[in-house]
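@channel anyone free to eyeball this complex?
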Amino acid sequence: MTTRQFLISAWNWNPWVITICTATILICGARNKFRFARKSAWLLAGIIIFFLTLASPIDALADGYLFSAHMLQHLLLLLIIPPLILLSLPSAPVPISFQNGQWKRFNWILRHPAANWFLGIGGMWLWHAPLLCNAAVSNAWIHRLQYVSLLLMGFAFWWPILTPWSKQRIAPLAGMIYLFTACLGCTVLGIIITFAPVEVCSIYLHPMDRLDILPLIQNQWGLTPAKDQQLGGLLMWVPACLIYFCGILGLFARWHGETSNTAIIPESTFTKAIKEQPHVR
Amino acid sequence: MSKAAAFSTAIETPPLGSAYQGLYSWVATVDHKRIGILYLLTTLVFFVMGGIEALLMRIQLARPNSTFLSPDAFGQLFTMHGTTMIFLVVMPTLIGLANYLVPLMIGARDMAFPRLNALSFWLLPCGGLLLHFSLLAGGAPAVGWFSYAPLSETSYATNSGVDYWTLSLLILGVGSVAASINLIATILTQRAPGLTIRRLPLFVWMILVNSFLVILALPALNAAIVMLFIDRHLGTHFFAPANGGSAVLWQHFFWAFGHPEVYIMALPAFGIISEVVPVFARRPIFGYEFVAASTVAIALLSFGVWAHHMFAVGLGHPMDLFFAATSMMIAVPTGIKVFAWSATLWGGAIRLTTSMLFAVAFLIQFTIGGLSGITFAVVPIDWQVTGTYYLVAHFHYVLFGGTFFAVFAGLYYWFPKITGRMLSERLGKLNFWMALIGFNTAFFVQHFLGLMGMARRVYTYPDLPGWALLNMISTIGAFLLGASVLVLLWNIITSLRHGKPAGDNPWNAWTLEWATTSPPPAQNFDRVPPIRSRRPLWDLAHSENPDPIVGGIASSDGFALEKNRVGIVSFLITESVFFLMLILAYLFYNSHAMNGPTPTSMLNPHRTGIYTLCLLASSLTIWLAEIKLRAGKSSAFRWFLALTILLGIVFIFGQGREYLRIFHDGVLVNSNLFATTFFTLTGFHGLHVFVGLIALLILMALAFAGDFRQGRIEAVKTIGLYWHFVDVVWLVVFSVIYLRLLL
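replying in thread with the prediction:
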């Protein structure tokens, strides 16, 4: 099989994925009366990436062949799709039910960045414990659970930064620390995976060649299991950090863009008035 | 007094007295201005020494097959030159400038921790003397400034030079970290009312970012150096491949520090340029936000690019690919800065003072150095030119043509503030043109030499076509550059005596340091002008046309930080990185089978688990102690404090028994890599528990002396935070070493 044949044939028309994608587009489109706003672009991008993550050849490769493809899926589900969806939501006041209604207790968790941080980073570490990593590849239900949990944890992680309830957003400087420490968390995991002499996910060592593409991967692409794991670790280490890093820059922009009321202050009576002096040459 | 006077803040005047007279007062000073001057003078001495070392090397290289220096002397010289210039000149000069200027620029009276400030300075001469003492003790280190293992191990570096190198760098590292913690605490907590973070002068902003870079990067070097020291003195094998160690790990650790270090040496220089260029172009900086944000971007990216120093090691295709990409990415924020400075110049009423000339030369030379730097991100080019004079040319363009020119610009700019007298512009121009011509003559030709294949760090070269000529040109340039430094020294000496009096604000600058007298009084300010924008003195002089108010009328950032808390948190951040390095080393060496003792055969997780519970309980008791103190129950406070100390002692006792048991089985720190990493990691943790216990005992003594009755609980909170940290670190260490065995 050639690369081209593989890229054409390995699509996975999973009915669940297609249903979720169309349903989201229809529901959100109906809410907007099918007018295309700038925010809709985020949503569309999120849905397209979601579709590519779970239906494109990436999924076929992640399904027992390549650890690095699995890592790519992991990153997209945790770090790309949730922020895109959150960005597409129109900003809104905090709903009454969350302020002091029946959801108040739940809101405490939403407002507590430490909990969200541990959900986001914990999810990343947890699913790379060798036991869970292997289980997720070999058991279809655990695999689905993994997808759903990654998405949910991604939403939880990005919530304090990008919540549409702008009153509840984390303060910009605190947000930068939030993202920087997250970057450290995934850097350490990435370094360990990249340099670990042991296999994080041993199931990828001896793939069952269902699609007959093993020769393609190992000979033509040159991805041996060792290189594959290195690549996976590097994906977690470098691009993941760059995403957090974009978040930090975004927060910085938000911080400097903030304007509060600019009332004019009366002149002060600073005694040592500094007058223009002739230029010194 | 009008209602507006509320915006100018009166500051108490401290008593002046014998503390400000005589030589002893300089030794005992805790005044940030004097400490700043001491920093600058000390680094000037080291700068001359490092320069002489460089000139000696250039004499040797002026002709092919020269025998002026022996190979060993040459090796010692380039090691000492690199180490001196980086650790004894560039870093402390920038820290010294920051020390002098930051409190003035933020309208503060002094640094947050003046005594700590004095300590960080005195560690500098201490470390410098220790390094140079190696010359008397059998020879300087001759292993290059990055001391690659296994060359730096005892089997190759047989004299004590490397030992002095390690000790000196540890001391200097502690000094830099202490100074950075101090700067962070100062900038975050001592700002004058109205000076919100968004209104900070860019120099201060960059020093803030830079200080975080220091506290995050330096511990990586310190951890590596500690391991090297243990290797050399306890016979272990961290970095000795013959016994299972990894020389590549040294390179990873070193460059994980080394690349951020490049920016540690560049960011404050960017800050100087961002102050000098607007003042002499008579325009506010173009794109303040972009310059500030790109600083953060550079700082963050700098941690993700170190492997580009190691392309020639053979890390594998995927590694090369990712690090080439990130390394190229750093060009973007750096480019943004260069554009911002150029755009500030565009259309400005430029005054070409000496300071401005140096700043403009910086722009051009730094850009050249940056562009040749990008070529190193391209892996195949890197393979060709790494380890040649092309690399030497590149980093001298960044560090001399960049950082040093910026420092000279800053020196000519702030000298009037520091001394009250102007530097001579006539001598200054001479100094500038000699430096410019000398520098470019010395280093531009080295690009060609490198491309022709001349290897760096080799004491001589064969008489190949063109090499002799280019090297001679380079040597002549180097001497011209050396002469320009003499002009600078002469300028400083004569101007100190006969220079024109400067007045408060000779350049019509806009930041707060120019609002006080030159030199500033001991208390810095009697009154701080109102601050509503980034150029408070402009607003003051042009009340009809003030700058737009930045960030609304808010006079604070909406958060108040306490300086002790900021200090201890910064300290704990740097400690965490240190432990992270030790933990990564443990994981790295213990993830594959080895001969000799193993964790499974030596350790018992259940037994240590009990002692772990004791340590965790002590976190609870110190927390309760703090609550009791806050509630004013001082006897309950003392009881809980005593209980904390007791639990800590029990833990230390448990660790001691564990060690004795392992020693009893004949296993010592040098038995194998498990023993080495185990003892290093747990030993350093034990040391921290021990230090924590001493601090708790001091608290106890203070408590009995009745020190906390007035509710001054910062000390208790601070030590409490440290103690929690020690416990959290143990929790991680315990999981990594012991809990892994249960899985």
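from a first look: Residues 71-105 of chain B form the longest helix (35 residues).
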